[in-house]
Design brief:
By secondary structure, the protein is an alpha+beta fold. Helix content is 19%, strand content 37%. The chain folds into two domains: 6-162, 2,3-Dihydroxybiphenyl 1,2-Dioxygenase, domain 1 (Roll); 169-281, 2,3-Dihydroxybiphenyl 1,2-Dioxygenase, domain 1.
Amino acid sequence: MSGAESLDHVGLCTRDGPALWAAYEALGFQLTPLARQSGRRAPGAPVEPFGTGNRCAMLRQGYLELLAILDPALFDNRLGAFLDRYAGMHILAFGIGGAEAELARLRRAGIDLPGVAHLERPVDDPEGPRARFSRLPLPDAPEGRLQLIEHHTPELLWQPRWLEHPNHAVALESAILVAPAPAESAAALARLTGQVLTPDPAGGYALALPRGLIRILPPAALGAVLPGVTAPDLPFLAGYAVRTDDGNAAVRALLGGRLRPVPGGLMAPPELAGGAALVFTE
């Protein structure tokens, strides 16, 4: 299969990691241990420790990355520039089957990329097995950090011990991008993922992947799709949807009146979910 196969993960960013992680535990997610990040600033540069780290909520389909600046004195991989716009969701990562084949496809489409970056990181023990993946190093776009990722060791990330959540979340279903020029953002995402655009019922466009959906909406549609949510800046990754396997019974019991009914499910508003609306669907 050519093109992106899934919405691999969304990433929420903050300068206060403990607060973000506590918020997601309160929403009923079990999080992985803290992983400090390292990498190369440029191809061929030495590997160095970064000032960032993450914890994740691993789902049976996809996952949520909760990324924080932990040491402002170290390189933050441009996370600070994102956070100068707003604290919230800034990362959309798409799963691919073969990085080299996707590199060739993108170059044919006119996207100039230097090559494939082969990366690895510890899972929960710095001395233990390391997760390995390949990433196509795309320049940051106005919409956020858009990534294509091939996992080589999925069994190390999607371990059964991390897949059971008190809120019964099982799948990352969709993400919502609000853009001042939806046609331009949608065309860029279609070219990046190699998938086909269709009209979205709320206005704008929908980009359906074999597993997952991206909705690219005009600002006027935001209030209808995520009532009460306002955009701090544009473009704005406004929210995402996670499916549960119990008809949302657990999230009702956990969160009660803090959830708001919205089209398609129950919403934890941005102030409870790290700056992005989180919709639980059945």
